[in-house]
C-alpha cells in the first residue's frame, strides 16, 4: 500500500558514534530498511486507514515523514543528551560541541554528556524495574490473601510452593497455608522491605563474590528505587560509573522481581506445559461474543476464562444471538493465557489497535503496561467496551472496574455480563483479514522441560541437554525477547531462522515469541522447515518424550515478559551443572525490537549476570563515549556480559554465532557451527 506499508529504520548518526556497539550501520550510505509486514497486518492497516483511523504504524511513519531518522526526531533525546532535571533547563548538549573547548558543552549546572546520559539511562532502568516490581507485588499479595483464604483462588501446585520455600531457605512451617504465607511475605519484603539483600535474588541468581564486591547485589526494590530517585535528582550523583553500577543493581532487582512473579503465579495457576493453539487477528469470531484481554498481570484473566465456560453465561450469549463466548489474548496477558490454557492470541503490542478496528470486540479488558493510549480513540469508533482494571492503568475513555483479589469472581462476572450485553450493539460492518490464523505450540517451562528430559535420563534429566550441547547437536541457546517495534524490520523471525539453520536452539518470550509464531516458527512442522539437521534430530526425540506427535517446534515459547525468569533459571541450572559461570556458556540473548523501559531493566540485569545481549535499536546513550564504553567494554570486564547493537538481522545473527563459537571453544566443545538442513 505504497508508503503506508513501508516503515523505515532509524538512520544512524556518525559512524564514530556507533562503532563501540559493533556496528549500528546497516551499510555505508544506507538510509532505510523496509518494515516487513505480514499480509494480515498490512490488510488490517489498510482497513483502519479506510475508516480514518490512525495506528502506531501510520503515526511512526508520519511523525518522521518518509523515513525514521534521528534528524527528524529529537537528536538530543536520541543521544541521551537532554536534561530536564531542574528549572534552569531543559539543557541540551550538541554532539558537535563536545570536542570544541571554546563551545559551551555542558548543562547550566555543569553536567557533561557522560553524567546526563548515564543519569537518563539509570532513570529508564528504574522505571522498568518499578513496573516489574509492581507486578510482583500484586502477585505476592494475591498469594498472601489466598493463604489467608480471603480470595477465590486456590494453590494448584503445592509441590512448587514447597520447592520455592526451600530455595529461599524458609524453614519451620509445615502447612501449605503457612508456607504460602511465609513465601509471600518474603517476596513482599524483597519488594518493599529492609532486608540486607533481596532473598529471591541471592537464592535464584548465580551471584558470586565479585558482584557483592562491586556493590551490585540489590537490597529491596523500594530501597533501590528510593536511592535511584535521589541520585538522579539535580545536583546529586555526577559519577557515570556509579550511575551505571546502580543500573546493574536495579537490573538484578528487576530479574528477582520477574522470578517472584513467574514462580508465584505457577504456584497458584500451575506451571505451563506444551499446548497447541493459534495466533492471528482472525482468532476473533464473527458469531461469538469476543473478549480481548490485554496487559501483563493474569490474575483477572484466569477468572474470566474459568467463568466464561459456565452455562449461565453461554446461555445468555446465545439468547442474544451469539453462538458462544470467545476469549482471546493480546500482548503478555495473552501469552500467560496461551501457555496455561491454550487461549488463542490475537496479537501483541503492535496489533492492539488493529484488533479493535475489526469491529468485532465486545470488551477490551486492560490491566497494565504496553497499552497504547490510542486504543481509546479506536474503541470510541466502535461499540467496543474499553475496560480498565488496575489503579496504575486508568484511561479517560474507559470504564474502570477496579480489580481486587478478594472479589475476583464478582469482577470477572461483571465484565462478562458487560461483554455479553454489548453483543447486540455490534455494527454489521465488521472486518476480518482474509488470512487464517497460524498454528502454534507454546507452554514451555523449566518443569515441563525437565519432565520430558527425565524420560530420557530419569537419574540425571539435565544430562541429555548437556550432552547434546557438548556434541554440537544443540550448538547454543539464544533467547529472543522484548517487544515488536514499528521502527525497525521484522528482526525476530529473521534472526531465529538464521540461528536455527546453525543448530542453535531458540527460546522466546513476550511479543518476540509472538513475532516468531506469526512467521510459523512455533508450528508443528517448523522443525522440519527451519532447523538444522542436528537440531532437528534433538527436537524429534524431545517431541516423542513430551508426548507430542512429531518434533517440538524449534522456537520454544516460554511465556510472557516476566517469564524471562524461566530462561534465567534454566541457564543458571546449566551453569551450575557444568561448574562454570553463565558468562562461559554458549548462550546469548537478543532484543531486536525492544521498545519499553522494562526492556532496559531486564537487559541490564541479564548483562550483570554475564549474558551478552544483542539490541536492534541503540539505547539513548550514544552521545557519551564514556557511557557507551561502560555498557560494553566495562560490563564485559566486570560481569562477562555486554550489550551489542546491530540493526541488520543477518549481521546480528553472525555476531551471536561468533559469541557462541568462542564460548564453545573455551569450554572445549566442538567449535564449528554446521549450517545444514536435511
**What is the assembly state of the chains in this entry?**
single chain
Unreliable stretches, pLDDT < 50, 5 or more residues? Answer: 1-34, 65-71
Number of helices: 27
Number-wise, the strands total 16
Descriptive terms for the model:
678 residues; alpha/beta; six-stranded parallel beta sheet; 27 helices
Summarize the helices and strands and which ones pair or pack:
Elements: H1 15-18, H2 39-50, H3 56-64, H4 75-79, E1 82-83, E2 91-92, H5 113-147, H6 158-167, H7 176-192, H8 199-204, H9 209-214, H10 221-231, H11 240-269, E3 275-279, E4 289-295, H12 299-308, H13 311-319, E5 325-330, H14 331-341, E6 345-347, H15 352-357, E7 363-366, H16 375-379, E8 385-388, E9 399-400, H17 408-422, E10 438-442, H18 446-454, H19 462-471, E11 476-480, H20 491-501, E12 504-508, H21 510-518, H22 526-530, H23 533-545, E13 555-557, H24 564-578, E14 587-591, H25 597-608, E15 613-615, H26 625-639, E16 643-645, H27 649-667
Helix pairs in contact: 5-7, 5-10, 5-11, 5-25, 6-7, 6-11, 10-11, 11-24, 11-25, 12-17, 20-27
Structure characterization notes:
The protein has 678 residues and is α/β, with parallel strands linked by helices. Helix content is 47%, strand content 9%. The chain is built from 27 helices and 16 strands. It has a six-stranded parallel β-sheet with strand order 6-5-4-7-8-9. Strand 5, helix 14 and strand 6 (345-347) form a beta-alpha-beta unit. It is globular and about 75 Å long. The protein starts with 14 loop residues before the first helix and ends in an 11-residue tail after the last helix. 56% of the residues are buried. Mean pLDDT is 90; it is low at 1-34 and 65-71.
